[in-house]
Structures are given as structure tokens and as C-alpha cells.
Amino acid sequence: MRLGIHCSVRNGFLPALEEAKALDCEAMQMLPYRRHHVPTTEEMAAFRAARAVSGVALLLAHSRFVPNLGASDESRQRRSIELLAAELRLSEELGAQAYVLHAGAYSAGSDLKTGISQVAAAIAQAVGDTGAKIPILLENVPGGGRRMGGSLEELAELFNAVARKSVRVGICLDTAHAWAQGYAISTAEGMLKFIAQTHRLIGTEHVWAFHLNDSRAPLGSHLENHWHWGQGFVGLEGLKVLLDRPEFADVVGIVETP
After folding, report:
1. Is 111 exposed, middle or buried (0-12, 13-18, 19+ CB in 10 A)?
2. Is the pTM of this model over 0.85?
């Protein structure tokens, strides 16, 4: 696995890159803009040039906004499509290899099938509006309530629905989210079972990235509480199995802990 960290853009793109370089990372992840500041063309060009000689070979952009792509309210969904389109443009200008996205939740009074259909259509519209070529990686979430993509079954449905729209799509698996959804990946056996389910339902060849996080949330709690490896409920045994898998040798692994 090609390892890196999520870097803060609070002080700009170049300090984020310096953080990854200082840790000798092969990959990094960051948000495509910082709050209340849309990056200039010059800032993005400077970042691309600096990364080209940095040794940080791979960049993931992570969605900044909480999407309402599956919203029944047309104005809310339209605003989410506009935000997605804007972030895809920025991610491409930054030279990112992929863009990571949570599917969000379907609306009250709607259902999972409708929500998934609306998300796929919304992603396809944003891609069509921008002409973006960057792959979109759908991330699993901790589940619970109306949030889509907690289980591997739901994630597979989302993936297939988006793929049918002729959008370049892959998967990003978050270990803390999988744990919170109820996958007992703390043991070697549990992690191997999770990988086998992923292969059966989605295909491991479609997994292009991992978020490698331990968790302070109990198993199956549907709570998001990333924590340092070996200091949470997930522990190290399952992680070691995951890092050893040959099918993920060239996949990006990003640590998102404090």
C-alpha cells in the first residue's frame, strides 16, 4: 500500500504538501479549498509544480461539503450538484488522482433505492456539467439512519448505479467507518472476512484507496470517532493483515487521525 496522511489546508496548499514531505509520505489527501477562500489559478499552479518535485506521488482530494445529492428537495439537490461540480474542477486543477465523496443521506419520506438513484443522477450531472475526468471514489460511511453506503451491500449498489452512468468511479474504504457499521475487522479473521465480502460484492479491483483509521467508537455504534492506530477498539492485528494483502500493493492508504 502507498501510504500517506490527510493534510490540513488551513494555512494553504504548500504547507499541506510540506507536512506530507516531512513525514516522507508517498501519498497525501487534502480538501480542495480552505474555508472562505477559493484558491487562485496561481496558487494551484504553484502547488502542482511543488508536488511534481516533492516525492509525494499521489494526491486524493476529499469533498469538503456535506452533500445532499440524494435530497428530495430540488433546490437543495441542485445546490449540492453545483458544489460537487466546483470541487471536481478544483481537484482537477490541483492535479489530484481521485476525488473522495460520501453519498450522504436520502430524505425523510424517501427510501434507499430512490436515494441511490438520485445520487447517481446527481453525480453524473456534475461530471457532465464540468467535463471532469477525475475518478470519483465513493466512501463507506458509519451507517445508521438514512445515510447511504454504510454496508458493503449499499456501497455496491451505489457503485453500480454510478458506473451505469458512464462515470469513472471507484471505492474508498474507511476502516473506522467499517468498524462503526459493524464489521469486526480487529482480528485477522475478521479483516479477511471483510476483504472477502468486498471482493464478492464490489470487486477488490475497484478499491482504489483506504482511509486507515482506528476508532474510539464501539463496534456497530454508527459513530465516527477516528483515533490513532493501536489506541482504539480496532487495534493492530487486522490492520497488519490489510497492509500485507498483495492485491492492495498499489492502492493509496491515508491516515486521517489527529
Report:
1. exposed
2. yes
